[in-house]
Amino acid sequence: MEKRSVLKTKGKFDSRGSFRTWVEINQNAVKKNIAVFRKLIEAKGTPRTNSRKRFGAGVKLWSVVKSNAYGHGLVQFSKLAEKLGTDGFCVDSFIEGVRLRKEGIKKPILVLGPTLAELAKDAASKDITLSISNFEILKHLSQTKTPPKFHIKIDTGMSRQGFFLEDVPKLIKFLNSKFPEHRTSIIDRRLSGIYTHFASAKDLNYPTYTDRQFAKFEQAVKLFEKSGLSGGKSAGGKHLIKHVSATGGAMILWPLAIQRTRTPIRQLAEANKTRTHLKLENYCERSQKHPRG
After folding, report:
1. Could you read off the pLDDT of 153-180 as tens digits, one per residue?
2. Is 231 helix (H, G, I), strand (E, B) or coil?
3. What is the pLDDT of residues 235-252, one digit of tens each?
4. What is the count of structural domains for the chain?
5. In what order do the strands lie in the sheet with 6-7?
6. 201: which DSSP letter?
7. 19 within some domain
8. Residues 123, 148: contact at Cβ < 8 Å?
9. Do 134 and 160 touch, CB atoms closer than 8 A?
10. Which domain holds residue 239?
11. Is residue 37 part of a domain?
């Protein structure tokens, strides 16, 4: 029988016996799942499985822990993931990012959801990276004395938030004019990434829409590369982080050129190699049988 290492989540009371329903997380299974993703993105195997050939060297694995880590416990799961070597964290709100910092999380944190402009100063002081999806918040950052690091989100078809592809030339012009520092400073201190969100990547039987989104994202990335904002030699060797996300898959960040052969989501969606690590338990005092009538 497998020896299980259970992650206990804290609630209103320290004792699990104070609750009638609780969630147990198998830490060994979490460790194995992270190892599976690591193997997929760092493998040096055949072209079919060689993710370095697909994505480029330096691929990083970030844990998406938004909305209480999807029920796993924001703080508890993040501390475990950091211990297991995750490269960074993605949260839904600035509040979640602050909570992780207060709990001692040191790895990079990216807020995926929108953030109020007045919180930009706090984000900078706590080293929390924001997602920028419109010109209004971008204008505010350009007027902030010490703006936080930020990633630009491109709306390629999710229709939730982000700049449209046709707005990218205007966006690049704005970044170059409102952030006049040399490019090394931009990459290091402010603009540090660009990403998009797939709408239906989990549907592997209908990849057409995902392919279309990926093609749009590639166009946006090429525009940034052409402008020099993507980093490289002009940015002191620093590269703009490029990544894609989707609820049905994983979030992968890589600092080099994106390979077109296949999207990261499909490359990593090998569910048969991962293991269930969350278990819902419920305490039942007794079961009663009632007479008919």
Report:
1. 999 988 888 999 999 999 998 888 866 5
2. strand
3. 444 578 888 876 444 444
4. 1
5. 6-7, 21-26, 278-282
6. T
7. no
8. yes
9. no
10. 24-277
11. yes
Is 188 within a domain?
yes
> Pairing mode, if any, of strands 60-64 and 88-91?
parallel
Tell me the pTM.
Answer: 0.76
CA nearest to 191, candidates 161, 218, 227, 217: 227
Kindly state the tokens that stand for 14.
Answer: 């320290």
In a domain, 284, yes or no: no
Cα gap 64→190, rounded to integer Å: 22
Question: What CATH number corresponds to the domain at position 176?
Answer: 3.20.20.10
The type of residue at 112 is L
Distance CA 154, CA 156 (A): 6
Q: Which runs of E-coded beta strand occur in the chain?
A: 6-7, 21-26, 60-64, 88-91, 109-111, 128-132, 150-154, 191-197, 241-245, 251-254, 278-282
pLDDT for 6-31, tens place per residue? 565 544 444 455 667 777 788 888 88
